[in-house]
Amino acid sequence: MSTPIRASTSSVATIGRRARPRTYSPQYSSHHTQPFSVLNRPAPKYEGHVPLTTIERGALAIGSAFGSLINPRRGDLIAALGEATATPYFIYRLRNAMLSNPTGRRILRDRPRITSQTMSMTYLRTLPSNTVGYNYAAWLDREGVSPDTREQVKYIDDEECAYVMQRYRECHDFYHALTGLPVMVEGEIALKAFEFANTVLPMTGLSLFAVTRLKQAERKRFWETYLPWAVSNGLKSEEVINVYWEERLETDVEELREELGIEMPPDLRETRRLLREQKKAEKLAREAQDKIGAISTSGV
């Protein structure tokens, strides 16, 4: 990968001003003469932006970290944790990774959004079964997920970096579809481990503490199978933030995996199904053996 390009928000904004949706267009002046404090909060830099002091950001990070550990299904807390821990360095590193890539620069210029309005599920379901778009729609249908469930970014101060975080968030389901990992806690932890190795966003690494909530067999499977897969593939693959998914919907999914350098992990749902069947068969065998033993004893 080439050396990251250092650029300000205005450097890309000038190139793609006409292509940007209103959501992330700067609307408010950020100039203020008094020091930033709870009682003197600067004006928002984009729609929905909530400026935070350093203390507020730290409190948000700690509170959302504990809350999401207690309830991993609280997407709002996970989103807040991601934003509170992404600055001052990590989100800029991800933004620079996009600036250093031709496709990443086009994404920053065009500012595409992934929603049910921009992604026609009806069309994607008609694509050949080997395409990225079909696999994405099939994964959403199988897991009962909608692209409209992603929280809006509000705690990142830099307007361009806010879009980068939003883009990462909205692409998350494509990563699921590409790897085949389900939305259950075990699958989410495995995908977060992959994302941490690939994006270095702290929230994805902190999410690994949720492994403590897994059952013993699930933890063993994670440490022995899915964590090694996640680290290996996350580090060696291309930066997935630079995939222009809207342009790759008709691409063969295996071709894209090969292009990115991503190997499929073992099918988690199938693995769990086979283990359930195995346990059920073992239980029936034990019960049958107990009945035989009882009959033999009564016969004696």
Secondary-structure blueprint of this entry?
Layout: H1 9-15, H2 54-70, H3 75-86, H4 90-99, H5 102-110, H6 121-125, H7 132-143, H8 159-179, H9 185-199, H10 202-206, H11 216-236, H12 253-260, H13 268-299
What this model shows, in words?
This protein has 300 residues and is mostly helical. Helix content is 58%, strand content 0%. It is built from 13 helices and no strands. The termini are far apart. Residues 1-33 have low confidence and may be disordered.
Note the total helix count: 13
Order of helices and strands: HHHHHHHHHHHHH
Show unreliable segments. Answer: 1-33
User: Could you tell me the mean pLDDT?
Assistant: 83
- DSSP strand count: 0
Largest sheet: none
Terminal Cα span: 78 Å
- The helicity comes to 55-70%
Radius of gyration of CA atoms, rounded to a whole number: 23 Å
Fraction of residues in β-strands? under 5%
- Secondary-structure class: mainly alpha
Shape: globular
Please summarize what this structure is:
By secondary structure, the chain is mostly helical. Helices cover 58% and strands 0% of the residues.
